[in-house]
Amino acid sequence: MTGLEQIVAGLEAAQVSIVASVPDTWIGRLMAGVRRSPRLRAVDVAREEEAVAVACGANLAGGRGAVLIQNAGLLNCGGVLAGLVELYSLPCFFIVSLRGDHRDPVYYHAPKGRVTEETLRAWRLPYARADRRGDLAAQVKQGVEFCVESCGPFVLLISGEDLP
Amino acid sequence: MTARKPLLDALVAMLTPRDVLVSCLGANARYLPHMTVPCPVFALCDSMGAAIPLGLGMALQRPDRHVVALEGDGSS
Fold it and tell me: What single-letter DSSP state applies at residue B50?
């Protein structure tokens, strides 16, 4: 399976039901795979904070929601992470494209790449970089299950290299 | 200007136990705990603007339930 197929398979295996997204180029490719899945419902929103709330709503109603956004969008989400996810102890699984690290060929993403992981640590958000040498589906499933068990967020950072 | 409470009373009178009410923060969320609402209520005390997408996520997950999202004009 390709990396994209593994990530989609991981969402399915974790019984994610709703995937809310504001896509960038990389997440857009991933969302194309999500839309092909008969077991995942894609929800397009205008702002990343809305994606978080949609996923939280799915979780509150007994399902499993996930948020697929770029790191620029994650950086917009401090308020809703504190005021919704943290305040109400809601599971919320994120797949975030890590634009601007050394693997990203687009120069203007670099400022976001420099602050993303430091911001995640400052916000005390559990996170991991996806390891494409390993089983990406298992990493996704593990992240979703971490959210459910901890009643909180988890962020899996992916690169364009993870989506061949 | 129309008072808020009569509007909330009218809304609550239309709800049934099969419904779910999601409310934004602010005055609505402060009134609702003091009202007898016949369905589950999720009244936000923060997260301005989250009531509609939160309700949308609930409704998509549970299409068998009627989800009502109450948002303020300063939040949306």
Answer: -
Provide the domain limits for residue A39: 3-162
ipTM field: 0.91
Cβ atoms of residues A90 and A117 within 8 Å: no
pTM of the model: 0.94
Among candidates A18, A63, A84 on the partner chain, residue whose Cβ is nearest the Cβ of B50: A84
Token pair 């299950």 in the structure block, residue: A145
Name the DSSP class of A62: T
Kindly state whether residue B40 falls inside one of the protein's structural domains.
Answer: yes
- Closest by CA to A150, choosing from A66, A68, A85, is A85
Is B50 inside a domain boundary?
yes
Report the number of distinct structural domains present in chain B.
1
> Do A31 and A19 form a contact (C-beta atoms < 8 A)?
yes
CATH number, residue A141: 3.40.50.970
Give, to the nearest 10 degrees, the angle between helix A3-13 and helix A25-36: 60
Structure tokens at A120: 């995640």
Is residue B6 one of the residues assigned to a domain? no
The verdict on residue B51 lying in a domain is: yes
- Give residue ranges of B with CB < 8 Å to any A CB: 20, 22, 42, 44-50, 52-62, 65
Q: Total structural domains in chain A?
A: 1
pLDDT tens by residue, B20-67: 999 998 888 888 989 999 999 999 988 889 999 999 999 999 999 999
